[in-house]
Structure to design on (329 residues):
């Protein structure tokens, strides 16, 4: 049977599958195929997949012959995501959460642990509390675009939903660039940027994130290209004034509090990636104004390269990214 499929490089296969599933485009009734270094992921709506920027081709696919999906056991389609061998669900009703967890385990979805979100992201280290419904280990290894990231979801923040966005930004890095990742976490920006030949200064206030980032740099063979700084980036980077060709500021809600530091770190020609969460009526205006207020008094001209909507965050609120070049004439 001929089926529309998204074609992607094999190393980005899992991230592509997750992104398609998140947008309800994944055709779970047809088999995913691999050929000549590419993965072919069946989709239910070819036009929607093309509109989302994917390469869509027609391909003969087989009917999926695998484990019973959770929906077949439950009678409804549950929402969950996989992070390595941890499955994450988000249910307010503990009985419904338990029912979904049991179905996931019964369906043989590959997992060692099933957890339910028990709190919002909070605190200086941006971590959650979790109800562990199956298994007992919240540590895992997540694979994304050919890289591996060890992490413990109880100790560090990590969102697999941002894989496509991280790839969009890291693909812009050129060999020899000097990059500051101001809120590096376990390295999902820093490591692929280093793999592309960037010299990366990776900063984080969370000691656990720095510990995992060090391990992940070794795991991915880029330790010699990454310098780690533990602590508040405003206080740890005095030796790097004017150093950066690129600065990643992935701390929505409060990254603009760090713009003065980003400008201080910037070379005479630097790209900033500022992540923000704003109302849908003006998602980019506040961030752009904040960048101008920080950069122009320091003698920089400001050029907005990209205004990018990352995802919906809450009703009428968007998670967005501004890619901005600041440069001195």
């Amino acid at each position: 049977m001929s089926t529309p499929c998204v074609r992607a490089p094999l190393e980005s296969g899992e991230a592509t599958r997750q992104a398609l599933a998140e947008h309800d485009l994944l055709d779970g009734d047809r088999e995913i195929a691999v050929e000549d270094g590419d993965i072919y992921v069946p989709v239910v709506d070819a036009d929607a997949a093309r509109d989302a920027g994917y390469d869509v081709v027609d391909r003969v696919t087989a009917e999926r012959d695998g484990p019973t999906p959770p929906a077949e056991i439950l009678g409804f389609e549950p929402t969950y995501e996989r992070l390595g061998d941890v499955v994450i669900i988000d249910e307010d009703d503990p009985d419904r959460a338990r029912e979904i967890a049991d179905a996931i385990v019964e369906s043989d979805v590959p997992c060692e642990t099933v957890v339910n979100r028990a709190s919002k992201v909070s605190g200086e280290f941006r971590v959650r509390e979790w109800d562990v419904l199956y298994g007992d280990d919240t540590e895992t290894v997540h694979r994304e675009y050919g890289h591996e990231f060890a992490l413990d979801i109880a100790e560090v923040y990590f969102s697999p939903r941002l894989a496509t966005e991280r790839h969009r930004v890291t693909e812009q890095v050129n060999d020899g660039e000097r990059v500051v990742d101001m809120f590096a976490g376990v390295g999902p920006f820093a490591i692929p940027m280093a793999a592309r030949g960037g010299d990366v200064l990776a900063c984080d206030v969370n000691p656990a994130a720095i510990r995992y980032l060090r391990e992940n740099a070794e795991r991915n063979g880029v330790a010699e290209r990454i310098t780690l700084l533990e602590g508040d980036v405003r206080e740890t980077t005095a030796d790097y004034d004017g150093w950066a060709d690129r600065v990643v500021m992935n701390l929505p809600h409060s990254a603009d509090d760090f713009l003065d530091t980003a400008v201080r770190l910037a070379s005479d020609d630097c790209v900033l990636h500022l992540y923000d969460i704003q109302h849908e009526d003006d998602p980019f205006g506040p961030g752009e104004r904040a960048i101008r207020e920080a950069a122009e008094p320091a003698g920089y001209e400001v050029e907005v390269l990209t205004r990018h909507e990352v995802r919906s965050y809450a009703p009428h609120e968007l998670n967005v990214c501004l890619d901005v070049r600041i440069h001195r004439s």
Summary: The mean pLDDT is 93.
